[in-house]
Amino acid sequence: VQLQASGGGLVQPGGSLRLSCAASGFTLDYYAIGWFRQAPGRERSFVAALNSDNTVTSYTNSVKDRFSISRDNAKNTAWLQMNNLKPEDTAVYYCAATTKNNQRSMLKVSEYDYWGQGTLVTVSS
Question: Average pLDDT of each block of 10 consecutive residues along the chain (125 residues)?
Fold first, then answer.
């Protein structure tokens, strides 16, 4: 059972990146997907989440209207499209999966069953 996050890199302010989260060893069909990030010296924090049937999305306020979460269960993959990136978006980004498909649980690190290894996003000129 594995989640593989990829797509991070160095980007200038105002640029875009698309992170991918590929699942192997299990199917994402019944799992909510969450993206979290952790900046140096800070705790891991919620970024975005999408429930298993694509009916509920949540975003932290600082990324609303800039980031978009999506998934394709047929490909067992989820994505986080990040636009208009800012230096404060710099962090290691993690994807995670949980069977708890309610909006409150999807916000919490402790509610997730599986985690990817993280991919570094650096926003700098």
Answer: 95 98 94 97 97 95 97 96 98 97 94 96 97
